[in-house]
Specification:
The protein is α/β, with parallel strands linked by helices. About 40% of the residues lie in helices and about 15% in strands. It has an eight-stranded parallel barrel, surrounded by five helices. It has a three-stranded mixed β-sheet with strand order 6-8-11, covered by helices on one side. The protein starts with 8 loop residues before the first helix and ends with a helix. Bound molecules: beta-D-glucopyranose.
């Protein structure tokens, strides 16, 4: 795929509908550093990152992008970029260090200043309440395997709503509960490093409950902003037409996509294919009213799209898209390679047409229950040097972004395959190269290069491309 295939910046700008939001997204733990500053408590990720072998090259998140001390510089980069909106996450252990009990005013103050500066820069704040940094004390008590964590989460959300409810334009309750369940509790490649395989599913139900309780807390607080959730969706397809492959594909669709989206949008859990029923038994104790809480109406639905997966029956290599997982060789399916696509630094297939198919599938599955959609994350890592003396020539990232945005706009535009989906925006993952979870600093997703020794920020070509897109758009009649 070349940049030419994606069309010119002017062509793409002309296809951006009025009011369509272009933004960048980030997460507190991946950029802030300052993990012990101003009363922040530890999170499960702080502890996980200290385990030998947990993070590639033994990289540490303690400084990350030092955003906690450099927020002004980073907002200036966004202002120059011209984005309409910034999606960031509030750190629960910064705001409520033990996950319960007293609220840390200094933690709230940091985000208070951030929000005010964004607004002053003309950038609309989208705040995510949970992007994986569960307070460590709660993790010790079982984390999301424990129903109580959902109750605790709602209390912290109410404090955030109380302080920021007058200024945040969009609230995202949770980021990708599926990643926490699968990578954190099932396969153990992310915090808290548990390896419960199918017994991890209570973590799914409790996060969904946390989402529902957060929606209720935000509504009760009368926040002025819109409320939604961000779920990662991986379109699944069967590696062959065999019954075994097809059944495994259906099962993985439940595990990755439908447990979360069906519960939130339809108020029910999907029925597993009959041979796999025992796998899904541990969805946990569902109390009366839980699914009503989980499926309260939302103002928008956030889709994070990175890649599709091709599923084949039988155990496979101990690899998942974000790392090595010995547990993966114990499950009776594996992910087959997509030979036909180029891949990113993580080895993920670059498959923008699946974003269009996903948007169609969302409408087919959820119909009128699907609220307006924002793509709340999309982006790619590529091998790039740790030190640079000028803009990285990341034409691969420019193609990636242009193609994904282009397919999403075509699909949801007049005559497109998903023209009945009300797509409101696209957030690029991410502004800065950052701490990429278990991959440490080895995977660079940023529009801006970060030298992790000097903290110097150097915009890449993709940054200038997005800036040109914003500028071309503002010149449209
Ligand atoms: C997560 C981000 C992560 C990105 C790339 C998303 O699933 O929300 O935190 O950095 O993927 O791996």
């Amino acid at each position: 795929m070349t940049v030419q295939d994606s069309g010119s910046v002017e062509d793409l700008a002309a296809r951006l509908r009025p009011g369509f939001t272009l933004g960048v997204a980030s997460a507190a733990f991946q950029i802030e550093g300052s993990l012990t500053a101003d009363g922040r408590g530890p999170s499960g990720w702080d502890a996980f990152a200290e385990k030998p072998g947990a993070i590639v090259d033994g990289d540490s998140p303690t400084v990350a992008c030092d955003h906690y001390n450099r927020a002004d510089e980073d907002i200036a980069l966004m202002q120059e970029l011209g984005v309409d909106s910034y999606r960031f996450s509030l750190s629960w252990p910064r705001i409520q260090p033990g996950g319960k009990g007293s609220i840390n005013q200094r933690g709230l103050d940091f985000y208070d200043r951030l929000i005010d500066k964004l607004l002053a820069a003309g950038i609309s704040p989208m705040a995510t309440l949970f992007h994986w940094d569960t307070p460590l004390e709660l993790e010790h008590a079982g984390g999301w395997m424990n129903r109580d964590t959902a109750e605790r989460f709602a209390v912290y959300c109410a404090a955030a709503a109380d302080r920021f409810g007058d200024r945040v334009d969009h609230w995202v309750t949770m980021n990708e509960p599926v990643s926490v369940t699968v990578q954190g509790y099932s396969l153990g490649v992310h915090a808290p490093g548990r390896q419960l395989l199918f017994d991890s599913l209570p973590a799914a139900h409790h996060q969904l409950l946390g989402h529902g309780m957060a929606v209720r807390a935000l509504r009760n607080a009368g926040v002025k902003g819109q409320i939604g959730v961000s779920n990662m969706h991986c379109p699944v397809e069967s590696a062959s037409n065999s019954l075994g492959d097809r059944l495994m594909t259906q099962a993985l669709d439940l595990i990755l996509n439908r447990i979360y989206a069906d519960a939130i949008l339809l108020g029910q859990y999907p029925k597993p294919p009959w041979p796999m029923k025992p796998w899904f038994r541990s969805l946990g104790t569902i109390h009366d009213g839980d699914l009503d809480l989980i499926s309260q109406p939302l103002d928008f639905y956030g889709l994070n799209y990175y890649y599709p997966v091709k599923v084949a029956a039988g155990p496979g290599p101990a690899e998942i898209p974000t790392g090595k997982s010995p547990e993966m060789s114990e499950v009776p399916f594996h992910l087959a390679a997509y030979q036909e696509y180029e891949t990113t630094g993580f080895g993920w297939p670059v498959a923008p047409e699946y974003l269009a198919l996903l948007l169609r599938q969302m409408k087919d599955r959820y119909g009128d229950a699907l609220p307006p959609v924002y793509i709340t994350e999309g982006g790619a890592s590529f091998p790039e040097p740790p030190h640079v003396d000028g803009p990285v020539q990341d034409t691969n990232r420019i193609s990636y972004l242009a193609e994904h945005l282009g397919h999403a706009l075509t699909a949801t535009g007049p005559g497109g395959i998903a023209e009945d989906v009300d797509l409101r925006g696209y957030y690029v993952w991410t502004l800065l190269d950052n701490f990429e979870w278990a991959a440490g600093y080895s995977q660079r997703f940023g529009l801006v290069h970060v030298d992790f020794h000097t903290q110097e920020r150097t915009p890449k070509e993709s940054y200038y491309w997005l800036r040109a897109l914003e500028r071309a758009r503002s010149q449209e009649p």
